[in-house]
Design a protein that fits this description.
By secondary structure, the protein is mainly α. It is about 75% helix and about 0% strand. The chain has one domain. The chain is built from 8 helices and no strands. Helix 2 packs parallel to helix 8, helix 5 packs antiparallel against helix 6 and helix 6 packs antiparallel against helix 8. It is rod-shaped, with a radius of gyration of 35 Å.
Amino acid sequence: MSEMSSIMGPIFWLIIFFAALALAAVAERLFYFHRVNINSGDFLRGLSALLRSGAYDEALHEARRLPGPMARVVESVLPHNRLERAELREIAMEAAELEVYRIERNIRTLVACAVAMPLLGILGTLLTLVRFYEQPGVIDGSAALPAVAATVQQALLLSATGVALAIPTYLFYTYLSARARKIVNNVERAGLECVHIICDLREAAAASEPKQPRACCCTAREPEENSDPA
């Protein structure tokens, strides 16, 4: 490692720095996705069963107990269960938008690293060749063959290192981005499903209430008969 770094110069350490940054971002996102991973289907079915039975407090407790953005969005909706459908929907969407940043955090760092590493490799290659051709005796062909071979090796190793590290970085970016989009969709679905369940149950309960008979106020009174004096 030390021999390779001495051959390729400081650009090599910049490439290694971005590679370490990408590795840290991948490890952090994988741990986060594993920690918040819950079965969305089972969660929604359990939530629906609790809400249909009227156990709002138990549903809120269950949402607070579970980790992850899906449970937090449901937790933000349940305390406002008496609001109208449009207002509840707005609360759910705002809560989901706040969770998007947490879900996609550090993923864009992988794009920056995947772009920076090959560009740094190309820059190192160009700087190495420029420094080599600035030496006296190179242009007129008097440079020794071992010096030319070492310069070409250094230039090629820098470019190869940057490209080789950028490929898995970009692949991890595509994988984590797809997984983040799936989680965002599940979060939005959970929030809207909670809103629809609450409002549908409330509307069904209102429709099933017996209507009170309305008293008719326009019933004609019978005229009182005046008794004639004897």
